[in-house]
Design a protein that fits this description.
With 587 residues, this protein is of the alpha/beta class. The chain has an eight-stranded mixed sheet with strand order 1-2-4-3-5-9-6-7. Strands 17-20-16-21 form a four-stranded antiparallel sheet. It has a three-stranded mixed sheet with strand order 8-13-12, with no helix packed on it. Strand 3, helix 5 and strand 4 form a beta-alpha-beta unit. Helix 5 crosses helix 10. The longest helix has 37 residues. The protein is globular and about 95 Å long.
């Protein structure tokens, strides 16, 4: 398409009014016909310019600094006069946090957000919506990644001409960091969230994947898990936004549009519940809404910006209409979370085998053996639309569940500093014990199976454990932490401190030392110990049964000697003992 024809098409596709808008509020993207995106310096200029143009409606502020020293900027936008977290809280206003550029190559949200913001302030989009809420807009979350700018940072994406990088300057993927919060950027975001307590957190992305016709997926939580009443409201929010997008010509899907089997269209699609390391898995644990918006990477940049802009405008309208009701539901969920003790709480979810065949708008394609990779090579012909009949699995149910402790968790003094730091980052309440409790009845978890990650992931060696809680009397000293279940963020407490949770502190390797054997008995000593213990008929009988029933044990001299070492007083009783306890009593 010639450039003149392209610009004509863009003017029809996007509700642009930048000819009448002050030049200081028009983005590089708009001026280029949505072929380019600006550098971060533009975000800094626009943030100030919006505040200058709308001093009573917009406040531009810094909420953190990146490792490379760049300011992390947000715009608080409202016609209510509430432009600080304190003012919004006092007036009971719903806060909508819209975040762009967590993966800075997927930068639609930045340019779409500034466009939607200007139109909303001018009354050309979502009229009246800013009278009933506060919009908190973070144009770029991953600022350092944004400035790692290049033309080929997203080889499977159409436009803009150049863009940022997926990860931070420290090579963290921020959308794996919500619970562990390693990155300074995430710590700043969590502080922003704790201060403003947004009702809904909108995470704007561009998907990867195959070539097909649908242009966006809208995934909301809580829908599959979390507080039951909020799940109903989450479905309503998702469906309302999808309905608005359909009216504007989109074909939104409620599941992530990625094949169940990589590069195989006939494998279809499956929905899932995101783990808490992701935004849509994290915010339901705080009893708040999260939406993942994924425009399709093979749509051109003008189309993707338009769809993202439409999504933001829809959200503004939905929060204006339902925000007060949804905020009340969230507060009621907070109150219910105070009573989560002794209740079953899911630690993970699974997609069932229940399948429906759906019609999905794709393109003709071929899959032929590749003489390069040796695998099947998929080639799509975008000139030939084709309706696919493919399976969809979208029934998601709880998988591993655990009964929450009646009182809370006890963290020994040796681990207290590290755990307290993480709890603070999430705004979780805890108490430091100022006196020895002595030996008290608690529940302890000893791992029967452990599996360390074979390689580093996000800077950690992961650990998966199996085992069970059991009652035991243990010493609890001065300086230990007590983390009560009776708090609004109880689901997050359980996620972080239950050892079998996929995003627990244990799972991310915070307690690996406790599962590493440090003390050993020399073989010649163990031989003597074994012969002494075999004088006990019960031990001898058990050893004989083990030899007969376990070939691996019988073949391993180390395991055979360990059988006796474990029964010796020198054995480390803390080996594989999770250094966090559960308490039925509120301390």
């Amino acid at each position: 398409m010639k450039r003149s024809a392209l610009l004509l098409a863009l003017s029809a596709a996007l509700p642009l009014a930048h000819a009448a808008a002050p030049s200081s509020l028009v983005t590089v993207s708009e001026r280029s016909g949505f072929q380019q995106t600006g550098r971060y310096e533009e975000v800094q200029q626009l943030c100030k310019a919006f505040q200058q143009a709308y001093p009573k409606q917009v406040r531009c502020f810094e909420f953190g600094r990146t490792p490379e020293g760049r300011p992390m900027l947000a715009l608080a936008v409202s016609r209510t006069g509430a432009l600080t977290a304190e003012q919004a809280g006092k007036r009971g206003l719903p806060v909508l946090l819209v975040q762009g550029g967590i993966h800075a190559g997927e930068i639609d949200g930045k340019d779409a957000g500034f466009l939607a913001l200007r139109e909303a302030l001018d009354g050309k989009a979502a009229p009246g919506a800013l009278d009933k809420q506060v919009l908190l807009f973070v144009p770029v979350f991953n600022v350092d990644g944004h400035e790692r700018f290049g033309e080929w940072n997203r080889p499977n994406q159409r436009g803009p001409a150049a863009m940022g990088w997926r990860t931070t300057a420290q090579n963290f993927n921020l959308n794996r960091d919500y619970v562990k919060a390693d990155a300074p950027e995430m710590q700043a975001m969590l502080a922003l969230v704790s201060a403003w307590d947004p009702l809904a957190y909108i995470d704007l992305h561009v998907t990867d994947g195959a070539k097909f016709q649908p242009d966006v997926s809208i995934q909301v939580e809580p829908v599959h898990g979390g507080d039951a009443a909020l799940m109903t409201a989450g479905v309503a929010l998702r469906d309302a936004v999808m309905d608005d997008l359909r009216k504007q010509g989109s074909d939104p899907k409620h599941y992530y549009i990625s094949f169940a089997k990589t590069d195989d269209p006939q494998s279809g699609f499956e929905d899932s519940m995101a783990a808490p390391r992701f935004s849509t898995g994290y915010f339901p644990l705080r009893n708040r809404f999260a939406m993942l918006v994924e425009t399709h990477s093979w749509k051109d940049y003008p189309t993707r910006v338009r769809i993202t802009r439409n999504t933001i405008v829809s959200l503004l309208s939905q929060v204006a209409e339902h925000g007060a009701e949804w905020r009340k539901l969230a507060q009621e969920a907070d109150a219910r979370a105070l009573n989560l003790g002794n209740q079953l709480v899911p630690l993970s979810y699974r997609t069932t085998d229940r399948t429906q065949m759906i019609q999905f708008a794709g393109y003709e394609y071929t899959r032929t053996p590749s003489d390069v990779s040796g695998a099947l090579w998929t080639r799509y012909d975008e000139s030939k639309p084709q309706m696919w009949t493919v399976p969809l699995r979208d029934e998601v149910v709880p998988n591993l569940q655990v009964a929450a402790p009646a009182g809370g968790y006890l963290v020994p003094a040796a681990q207290a500093s590290m755990v307290a730091e993480k709890l603070k980052q999430h705004g979780i309440s805890y108490k430091v014990l100022n006196a020895d409790l002595g030996k008290v009845d608690v529940e302890t978890f000893r791992a029967s199976k452990t599996k360390f990650g074979a390689q580093s992931f996000e800077g950690h060696q992961a650990l998966a454990v199996e085992g069970a809680w059991q009652k035991e009397a243990r010493e609890v000293g001065k300086g230990a932490l007590f983390v009560p279940i009776a708090q609004a963020k109880s689901r997050l407490v359980i996620t972080m401190l239950e050892p079998e949770s996929a995003d627990s502190l244990l799972a991310w390797g915070a307690f690996n030392n406790a599962f590493e054997r440090k003390e050993y008995m020399e073989e010649y000593v163990a031989e003597e110990v074994a012969r002494e213990q075999l004088k006990d008929p019960a031990v001898a009988a058990e050893f004989k049964r083990k030899l007969a029933s376990d070939p691996a044990f019988a073949a391993s001299s180390a395991q055979r000697l360990e059988f006796f070492a474990r029964r010796h007083p020198s054995w480390d009783e803390r080996f594989k003992l999770y250094p966090v306890m559960r308490s039925a009593v509120v301390r």
